[in-house]
């Protein structure tokens, strides 16, 4: 359900919210496929961790994460919450943690993509609450399913 008219296209709410503009819907769908869902230079767990962390309602800071993953998520959250405070030093930190420039580009791309998707949902009134569990069940796959912190939302396990 959104605040604007939408067609039933059998896709998740955020994608369906663009159904009255098929060109936009297709471009955003292709962008999702090009930037994430296994297409980046990161592992699927890393992609999913960034996507969850930029929602900022998931507290990754108490999770038992390796330094590289924690640094990557710190970078993604800073880019989300304080984009004008980003500096070259932030990229250097990621390099020092072992990320390649291609992986750093993937971190930025995935962070931007999910911030875009969040703003789209917020701006159109997409109710993702009801779809959230179904989406998480289908989206969080493989080794990411074993990351307990990904399943805690606003302090409660989903």
TrEMBL record:
It comes from the Eukaryota. InterPro entries: AhpD-like (IPR029032). PANTHER family: CARBOXYMUCONOLACTONE DECARBOXYLASE-LIKE DOMAIN-CONTAINING PROTEIN, SI:CH211-175M2.5. This is Peroxidase. It comes from Geodia barretti. The lineage of its organism: Eukaryota, Metazoa, Porifera, Demospongiae, Heteroscleromorpha.
């Amino acid at each position: 359900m959104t605040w604007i008219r939408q067609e039933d296209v059998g896709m998740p709410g955020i994608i369906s919210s663009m159904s009255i503009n098929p060109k936009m819907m297709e471009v955003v769908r292709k962008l999702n496929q090009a930037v994430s869902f296994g297409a980046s230079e990161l592992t699927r767990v890393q992609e999913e961790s960034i996507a969850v962390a930029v929602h900022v309602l998931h507290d990754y800071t108490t999770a038992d994460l390796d330094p590289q993953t924690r640094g990557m998520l710190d970078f993604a959250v800073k880019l989300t919450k304080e984009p004008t405070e980003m500096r070259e030093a932030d990229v250097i930190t990621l390099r020092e943690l072992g990320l390649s420039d291609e992986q750093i580009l993937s971190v930025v791309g995935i962070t931007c993509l999910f911030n875009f998707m969040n703003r789209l949902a917020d701006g159109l009134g997409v109710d993702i609450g009801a779809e959230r569990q179904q989406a998480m069940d289908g989206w969080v796959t493989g080794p990411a399913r074993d990351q307990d912190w990904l399943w805690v939302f606003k302090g409660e396990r989903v």
